[in-house]
Amino acid sequence: MSEKTAVVTGAGSGLGRRIAGALLGAGYRVALAGRREDALRETAGPDANALVVPTDVADPASVAALFAAVQGEWGRLDLLVNNAGVSLGGTVAELSVDDWRRTVDTNLTGMFLCAQQAVRLMRDQDPQGGRIINNGSISAHAPRPASVAYTATKHAVTGLTRSISLDGRAWNVACGQIDIGNAATEMTERMAAGIPQADGRLMAEPTFDAGHVADAVLYMAGLPLDANVQFLTITATTMPFIGRG
What we know:
The protein is of the alpha/beta class and 245 residues long. The protein has helices at 14-25, 37-44, 60-74, 97-124, 148-168, 211-222; strands at residues 5-9, 29-34, 50-54, 79-82, 130-135, 173-181, 183-184, 195-196, 202-203, 208-209, 231-235. The strands form three sheets. A seven-stranded parallel sheet has the order 3-2-1-4-5-6-11, sandwiched between helices. This is SDR family oxidoreductase.
């Protein structure tokens, strides 16, 4: 396991930090990608198996430099956790074009750019192959009010996951998606005070320990390449997702 290498995007906080920590704890060598170098260094701590690579996933040159650094440091890549994302609220009538484009650039184009570089590396290395895990969201299934950009990108991530899965077969590259609802991170702290529901009410929502997400990623990552979790959904049990809300 000590020879396994991974890239985690959005590793400076939230789920990315928890996932990166779990992978490091399991013996992976992990490249930590994100925009804030100081936050990435906090995630890395003293672990010698952590490689800090400040990265803007929406910038093709920055993404190419990330994967070049991984190849130069370790010579191969076994796992990409495509986690980086932003959530900019707004209804279809109110969301600015700039916020729409920023969301698409990060949540969708950024995932594509990282997946493209990862697949190329996995295709050309010996032994060939690897795994990509895309962070979807339960918004890949159903929207929240005033989440048009986020929801649209997460639906698109599902199509990206399926296409990578199909294209990757030729090079022994597996791809799956984890859809998460209400893991307890900085992003979900506001849920305790109440967030808008489909019927117009404000309602506090339950959350669950984000460590369970990291455990799920470890399970998906630990499978041999002839097996794949195509889609995994993990949510707070009683959140308003299943049923009529």
